[in-house]
Design brief:
The protein is α+β, with helices and mostly antiparallel strands and 108 residues long. 21% of the residues lie in helices and 31% in strands. It has one domain.
Length: 108
């Protein structure tokens, strides 16, 4: 009976190994699908920036594509990822007739 239990445990463990490798080999969390839109975003909204907050950088609001139209995303604070880095906000960039979203990121 103990041999049967032992084999059953080993079989379960061996089945988890390929699943673990498949999960690790998947798309990284930071990979973002490229957003390409033919409709230009609306003009930026005027949004007052709150007072400075140590350890954070202000990420201004922007328009996000929601599948059928744009929706406003209000500004928010980004925790500083690296000492001496500055936050480059995301923005829409025109390339020919299309508009591409460039994700915000930290720059040294």
């Amino acid at each position: 009976m103990n041999v049967v239990r032992s084999l059953s445990r080993w079989r379960k463990a061996l089945l988890l190994v390929p699943l673990t490798f498949a999960a690790l080999a998947g798309t990284p969390v930071f990979a973002q699908p490229e957003v390409i839109i033919r409709e230009a975003p609306p003009p930026m909204r005027v949004e007052p920036m709150p007072g400075a907050r140590p350890g954070y950088a202000w990420d201004p609001g922007h328009w996000r594509w929601e599948g059928r139209g744009y929706a406003w995303v209000p500004g928010h604070w980004q925790p500083v990822a690296r000492h001496g880095a500055r936050w480059k906000p995301g923005h829409w960039q025109a390339r020919g007739p299309n508009w591409y979203w460039i994700e915000g990121h930290w720059v040294r």
